[in-house]
Write a structure and sequence with these properties.
By secondary structure, this protein is mainly beta. It has one domain. The protein contains 2 helices and 9 strands.
Length: 154
């Protein structure tokens, strides 16, 4: 896990449905819900499976995937984001569940982000170490400069 200067940024308040996501993130894993009955993956988190109304579990995934779409945030939406603009925010389709879209910031120059790019999730800890959240980086950068979130045992 790596540290970041983003401790001044707002952090989502976990809900009963999203708590499993944040618990897994705090332990260095990216996880999404999977139905125990039909095995379908889903995100964002819900109370029951959106396909069969079955019981859900949190399943760790590799964090590897493709940029499905993205935007570049160039305008400061709040003073706490001023030093971070511009940045890319992508919807990533994970390899394990290509129909799912996970939102996240993409590291690096937003001019280099393109639809279809291969990315790897990285779990980032705030500067104070109190909060962890996923960000994405291009696979070649993630391999060279960061520790991937999970080993290949999953």
């Amino acid at each position: 896990m790596r540290q970041t200067d983003m401790m001044d940024l707002p952090f989502p308040v976990p809900t009963a449905d999203s708590a499993g996501f944040w618990i897994n993130t705090a332990t260095g894993r990216l996880a999404i819900q999977q139905c125990k009955d039909c095995q379908a993956y889903q995100f964002p988190p819900l109370e029951t499976c959106r396909l069969c109304n079955g019981t859900l579990q949190w399943t760790p995934i590799s964090g590897r995937g493709r940029v499905y779409t993205f935007i570049v945030q160039e305008h400061v939406i709040s003073p706490v984001f001023a030093s971070h603009c511009p940045y890319a925010i992508a919807l990533v389709a994970p390899d394990e569940a290509p129909h799912v879209r996970i939102p996240g910031r993409v590291e690096g120059d937003p001019a280099h982000v393109k639809i279809g790019d291969r990315v790897q999730a990285l779990i980032t800890a705030s500067g104070d170490g109190e909060r962890c959240f996923p960000v994405f980086d291009h696979e070649e950068n993630a391999k060279d400069s960061h520790q991937p979130i999970l080993d290949d045992k999953i």
